[in-house]
Amino acid sequence: MNMLYDSDTFSVVHLFAEAVGPQDGPTLERHGFEIVDKRTGKEVYLDGSWAELFQVHIQAWQAKTPTQEEVEDTLEGFAVLAQNPVLMH
Predict the structure, then answer these.
(1) pTM confidence score
(2) Between the CA of residue 29 and those of 2, 48, 79, what are the distances in Å?
(3) pLDDT of 50-61, one tens digit each?
(4) Exposure on the CB side of residue 33, measured as CA atoms within 13 A
(5) Per-residue pLDDT tens for 17-72?
(6) Of the candidates 30, 67, 63, 61, which has an alpha carbon nearest to the alpha carbon of residue 46?
(7) What is the 3-state secondary structure (H, E, C) of 6-47?
(8) Distances (CA, A) of 58 to 4, 21, 41, 70, 81
(9) Where are the domains of the chain?
(10) What CA–CA distances, in Å, run from 20 to 25, 32, 51, 80?
């Protein structure tokens, strides 16, 4: 797990998962991004094609450092997908 971003409004964590699958067969390594909208108390987990799309944004940010407003605008776009309430375990 790697914290990528944390502000008063959003937090973003890159989650790395262990390879899953049968020991003697092909394995699938899954990872994704969790975006928490602190204003609504909801989170969304991006994996698969959504994670790939988000990774494109991260690579663009690495090439050209964005302003906090640009980052927050992008996260706002993904936060509309958030349906799950944030729960403490």
Answers:
(1) 0.80
(2) 16, 11, 25
(3) 999 999 999 999
(4) 25
(5) 765 556 666 655 678 999 999 999 999 999 989 999 999 999 999 999 999 999 99
(6) 30
(7) ECCCEEEEEEEEEEECCCCCCCEEEEEEEEEECCCCEEEEEC
(8) 9, 29, 23, 12, 18
(9) 2-85
(10) 10, 14, 18, 30
CA gap 64, 78 in Å, rounded: 20
Contact 58, 32 (CB under 8 A): no
Question: Which two structure tokens, joined as six digits, stand for 7?
Answer: 């502000």
- Rounded to an integer, what distance in angstroms lies between the CA atom of residue 45 and that of residue 35? 6
Please say whether the beta carbons of 6 and 53 come within 8 A: no
Q: How far apart are CA 12 and CA 23, in angstroms?
A: 32
